Every structure is written in C-alpha cells, then in structure tokens.
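Thread title: Can someone regenerate the structure for this chain?

I was given the following input by a collaborator and told the matching structure tokens would be attached. They weren't. Posting the sequence so someone can regenerate them.
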Amino acid sequence: MSLRLLVVGASGRTGRALLELGLARGHRFTAFVRSPEKLPQRHAHLSVVQGDPLDGEALARALPGHDAVVSALGPRPSDALRGRNPVLSTGAASTVAAMGAAAVQRLAVVSAALLFPGGGPLVGLGRFLLRSHIDDTRAMENTIQHSDLDWTLVRPPRLVDSPDATYRAEVDQLPSGMRVSAWLSWKGVAAFLLDSLEHDLYRGRVVGICH
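Best answer:
Regenerated them for you:
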C-alpha cells in the first residue's frame, strides 16, 4: 500500500534515508523543510514545501491529504551540547497542534535511546554532557504521549553511516541493553519508521531499536 507521508526534518541524515527508502518502496512524500536547497533528492513522488517546523499554522496548511507525519527533527550537534534552542519540544507542540487542525492522526517520531535507564558510567557521562538536549527530548516525548494522536516514539542509539538497514526492535527498552557500543545506521531508523507505518505497528508505544 502506497502512503502519502509528510516528513519534518527531511534534510537531515535520517530524513534523507527515509526519503530514499520510502521512494524506492513506492510511497509519496512531502518534505517540510526550512532550506530546500539542503535536500539533494529530486523525484516525481517528492514534493518540497519550504516552512519552519516550529510554525504550527504553516505546517497545518501543508498537512491535508497525508496519511501520516514522520518527525526526524533534531538540533545541530553543537546546539545539543550547549543546550541551545528547545527545538524538539517546541516542534512537538507545533506538530501536535497542526495535526489536530488538519485531522491527520498517525505520527512517528525519532527520539533517543539515552532516555532509557541504565548503561553504566560512560552512558551516564553522555547523559550529563547532553543533559539539556535530553531534557528537551523528554519534554518532546511528554507532549506527544499526552496528545490524542496515534503516535510511535522510536529511540535509537548512536547513529552511523552504513548501507545496512537491518534493525532489531523491542518495546520499552533497547534490544541490546543500554551500552556504549550500541549503534544503528540512519537507514535502519528509516526502515523501522516505514515498516511501522506500512504495517500499522507500535501505536502508542515507545520502541528501542538497534543493529
């Protein structure tokens, strides 16, 4: 079944992987991006809409006719370290409001495995260094979980550039357990998002995924 998906954060690594895999599977996409020039893909089934993902009204105007929204939104690494701009929580509030206004119900969102407990001292150090980003991510999840949407939150570990799109998934925990060596490719995250939407999996669930 072909889906029509709107992607927030489409110009990032996960977003670009999602478009590549999804277009190959026959889906139609709208990429909602601040800077269209940063999006390399061009395809007959890909529409690009320039807009700020933190602008709920602009997002609502782009949403009618879509089957679902995928958010791969994330801060720049430097902003994540410095605690600048709560882009995830602000974007979640805009997305939830826009989807309510446009009567689009299905939402899949990329979160972070660091929100799972455990992992030892090195993982704990990562949480400390990224504490502002983690607070923003937790607030984002809270907004989505308390919405009326049919949501899926996916928490991957460290992401790497690899052609391997395989993944393992488990509800409420990372399949490998929280450890420094856990990883997944951007394509693996994209494959999970597409599989979840295509097969209507993990509604209302937090899912850990890793290689």
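Helices lie at 13-24, 56-62, 77-82, 87-102, 120-129, 131-145, 186-198.
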